[in-house]
Amino acid sequence: MGSEDDYVEVSLTGHELLDNPLLNKGTAFPEDERREFGLFGLLPPHVATVDEQLARTYGNYKMKNSDLERFIFLVAMQDRNETLFYMLVQQHITEMMPVIYTPVVGLACQTYSRIYRRPRGIYVSYQYKDEIDTVLANAPNPNTEVIVVTDGERILGLGDLGVGGIGIPVGKLALYTLCAGIPPASTLPIILDVGTDNKDLLADPLYLGWRHERVRGQDYDDFIDAFIKAVMRRFPTVLLQWEDFAKSNASRLLNRYRDRLCSFNDDIQGTGAVTVAGLIAASRVIGKRMSDHRVVMFGAGSAANGISDQIVAAMMIEGTAELEARSRIWLVDKHGLVTASREGSEETKQKYARPQAELTSWKLQNSSYCGLGDVVHNVSPTVLIGTSAQPGLFTEAVVREMASRTERPIIFPLSNPTSKSEAVPSDLLKWTDGRALIATGSPFLPVQMGSEQIDIGQCNNAFIFPGVGLGVVASKARRVTESMFVAAAKALAEFSPALSDSKAALFPALETVREVSKAVALAVAAEARRSGLTELIDAGQLERAIEAKMWTPRYVPYRRKRTLAEY
Q: Which residue of 34, 166, 303, 362 has the fewest C-beta atoms within 10 A of its own C-beta?
């Protein structure tokens, strides 16, 4: 239970203590604390050990018959006893992370209004746009260190889920705690409810959000601005993570506020960094440099933009000029290859647009359209990445064409949930005769190829953003920079099992995620120091600050905090 001085002063007693998920120990309250805190007789008489509690809750978990039931069970447990929740999930992290986050969290968000049990986080609704300060004042902890916020418009690959999008910030912050030890009491999930254009939700009599079409344009921007100003007043040193905003808003909001508030966008920067970590590892396996690659990306939204930017940054570190690095990337979307002659393209697409003249020497199946197959045929890519949320897009013909031109094709179908993946690993390995180096956005089981079992690494942002957050918070960095994400990617790549076994997964097992997060945090904090963004001046200070910030789920002794009248 800790040393003699390791205890917590608690003022709550009786049912108020049992109803507080951050303090509740359930049947593990020892007898002296049951008497001291007015719990005597409120609990079954047996004092359970932690192992008994874990066995009981895991047994109940295994009795659930669907992923959604398992999600509801775990969320209810988190609402009842957070310490036990994190101990259980940590013990079964590979089994349970897909349940508390992708892919199951997508289904939970879709059905949020029908499975709602208990509120978690803050709901900032547009209809109360003049009372945001009042709303934030109701946050449970005035010392919040990390906020994850979404407006629910682009939840995973599922689209506009309105207020149901709150499940994403809740899930992301659970991963901050699980993977990097950010104390749960210092986290705050927020949903910005600006309405929804999802007609099914608006017609649902049980929908819990604001029943209004999604606010857009200047009204939307003014609302976001009011929200950010309120956050800066209430939590001036907080780290804010933008999450699952539509591509029309994601980059511009990040760029507008990143120099005013310590913030980043995980869909852009986190996805970019974890993908680059996989590419660095794959490149080392096959003896190539990052700048040796020709990268074709299907999907040209926020994730593709972030991945492209991080690839360019990694190539530049190797000494490649920026324009040359950009020229190694080909973006394809539903309209075909992104070219400079296309009208109306977003600025983020134009940055990687190909010159129209490039196509004059290409062989095209249709002279008026240049699709993915055409690009693969003419470019001979060494890397193929999917961020399109279009299942089955990487067809046998496309993959076989790629594999015929490169010995070890690197293929990352990154869209999630699983139902949105551009291809499944078993097909990719079959079509490449087992030569492909694969990472996926959602978890997949190992693939059996003859007598060999090939593990599939998950290109999981959980290997990046919790460690980045830990490094920023622990070092008290004033801003989050692109160079921090490059440092994070390089730190993660060092943990790739494929570096010692070319048939192993490109990404480590989830059981190592806390070790990975600490290494990522150290790399990020060191970059903050190098950039002059922290007052901590030596590596020892940084490491001690990170270790001190990492919360471990365990029960500590309680002492009753007495009022003056009791002395």
A: 362
